Amino acid sequence: MPELPEVEVARRALEENCVGKRIVKCTVNEDPKVIDGVSPSDLQSALIGKTIVAALRKGKNLWLRLDSPPFPTFQFGMAGAIYIKGIETAKYKRSAVNITDEEWPSKYSKVYAQLDDGLEFSFTDKRRFAKVRLVHDPEAVPPISELGPDALTEPMKVNEFANALSQKKTPIKALLLDQCFISGIGNWIADEVLYQARIHPMEKASDLSKENCETLLKCIKEVIEKAIAVGADSSQYPDGWIVRYRDQKPGKAFVEGRKIEFITAGGRTTAFVPELQSLSSSSKAASSKSRKSKYDADDEKEAQETSKSDKDKDSARGAKRKSKKPEDDDATQKKSSLKKPAIKELVVATKKKARK
């Protein structure tokens, strides 16, 4: 999904090409799943005639400040994207839609606007997980008001970062994905910065040394800035980045000759290199204890189920014996008595043959 670099590239494109221009035409798609809390007609009316004063971003959220409120906000979801006609914007494969002059705006367009100089832009979403809202103060209401410091524009100091992590027993990958802790980092960036910092994704945040924290902060800055510098085009990321290979099948994914393994961390599929990202003994012990507790519970449950099953079987056998008819018992005894002479005769015959 679009993360900080993709949204920042879109923001910069809007800032460079649209700020200072007036919206003269607007079309909003009838899609209540994406157009959230406002009718298409009200959103159109709020934008037409307004001048774009600034394009702003926090985390993965973008909004346009107009010459008067309310302002449109864009939460990109899984596949949200900004397209400006005739101008290159971020290339993100899940967001990509084929747009030609004949197809402009795309059938996936949710908000389309034309400016007073003829320039046109569109917010598209082919997966329909994005949200477009109209609010008077974007930074004062959720989701933007609930975000932690922006990973690019509001970086924590090393001491502040280390102190915050020392109080968290959460696995570091899950913590990096928590937008209330730090905003803008998503799945691929989290995997990348942890790989570059040589930190295991399941390492407890509180187990990281100050040196680890310093390295991790440096990697967050470098990865985000490099991604933005190449227009968030993943095909232009360095060959030594794990993100270039994380879409390959398990067992066939390698980075710089080292095997990539996949686990679930923070509820997301996570790529890491065991050879370089080892788990500390304390985090390993905590993980083992957690697994043991689960296995003990499973064993107890299995024992209870086995006991219940045995009781049910015994009960069934008892019921079967009670349901047997007297003639069945006579038949069984008769069958048994017939077998015994036959066995005795066989033994006698064998002994006679041996004497001969």
The radius of gyration is 33 Å
Q: Could you say which structural class the secondary elements and strand pairing correspond to?
A: alpha+beta
SSE run: HEHEEEEEEEHHHHEEEEHH
How many strand units?
12
Could you list the spans in which at least 5 consecutive residues all have pLDDT below 50? 290-310, 322-344
Q: Report the mean per-residue pLDDT as an integer.
A: 85
The major beta sheet can be summarized as: 4 strands, antiparallel
Termini separation comes to: 92 Å
Strand content: 15-25%
Strand line-up in the sheet with most strands: 1-6-7-5
Q: Provide a count of the helices.
A: 8
From the spread of the alpha carbons, the general shape counts as: elongated
Percent in helix:
25-40%
